[in-house]
Amino acid sequence: MVAEDLLLITGARRLVRLWALYGRMDLLFFARGPHTALPWYLSEVVVALAAVTATFLLAERFDDIGTWTRPQVYFLLGYALLVHGLIETFFSYNIAFISRRIGRGQLDHMFIEPLPLWMILLAEGFAPVGATSSLLPGVGLLLWAASQLHLAVGVAWWGLFLVNVVASMAVVLAFAFAWGSLAFWAPRAAEELNSSTYELSHQLAPFPLDGLSGIALASLVTVVPVGLVAWYPSRILLGLEAPPWAPALLPAAALAFVALATWIFRRGLRNYGRTGSTRYSDSGHRR
């Protein structure tokens, strides 16, 4: 038991050191000068806000969307941006687009590093500076909405908020890894698959799904789980009508999606171990 604890502590310390290293590298990009960093950063802000603009304008024009009041819609949009920003913070550089890493043969580069694969996936995409393009608008919308809603925020609420945010991130990443793992079997066809799956979860997340038919709603929380990214957790955090067991549904669903994605990814790794990358020739050139 002591040996396991030491391994856990050592692994956590190494992960923190790697985060510090990749964080400095991300900062260096902006330190090169405003002529490089500013246009890129502003374009990322525009892209992040574009995903929530349609819902924002509808709420602003009509004061509500279905049963959602305007401040509640703002909370939903802020939550969606926050989840997106946190994924960009910890899983940039194609970690969230794992089909690119697999399809392009870049997984081989990760295998030769003297670190376990799980630690590489957790550390290599850390980009805390660039991700503020989504984080700051998300936090701003959440604070604005909270001030208008007069939420009774306590320790229990913050705990529920943290659990839901982590679960929402897990759903998005599990969805990406499950589909992105198809690149193990079809690297050329599936290389850019996560471009579509990630944009799907990003663009459809900031919409209230109340009023949809049972089949449509069930599909959007299972087959394409965009409803679990922001709509469902926002309902729980805002205290909208829900059964007593509702707060436990998202964490349980996140665990199920992560388990499924892990199973598919491991099967893909076994296939990759037999076939290797088909995107590079023996002399190292891309086919």
Describe the structure.
It contains 13 helices and two strands; from the N terminus they run ααββααααααααααα. With 287 residues, the protein is an all-alpha fold. It has one domain. A two-stranded antiparallel sheet has the order 1-2. Helix 2 runs antiparallel to helix 3. The chain starts with a helix and ends in a 12-residue tail after the last helix.
Overview features:
287 residues, 2 strands, two-stranded antiparallel sheet, mainly alpha, 69% helix
How do the strands and helices of this protein lay out in sequence?
Blueprint lengths: L1 H30 L2 H29 L1 E2 L2 E2 H21 L7 H6 L3 H5 L5 H7 L8 H18 L5 H26 L6 H4 L2 H12 L9 H6 L11 H8 L10 H27 L12
Antiparallel strand pairs: 1-2
Helix pairs in contact: 2-3, 3-7, 3-8, 3-12, 8-10, 8-13
Short synopsis of the structure:
The chain has 287 residues and is an all-alpha fold.
Name the assembly state: single chain
Separation, N- and C-terminal Cα atoms: 49 Å
State the low-pLDDT regions, or none. Answer: none
Strand content: under 5%
Structure annotation, total helices? 13
Tell me the major beta sheet.
2 strands, antiparallel
Strand tally, please?
2
Task: State the strand order across the main sheet.
Answer: 1-2
- Element order: H for helix, E for strand: HHEEHHHHHHHHHHH
Shape: globular
Structural class: mainly alpha
Number of domains: 1
Helix content: 55-70%
Rg, rounded, reads: 20 Å
Mean pLDDT: 85
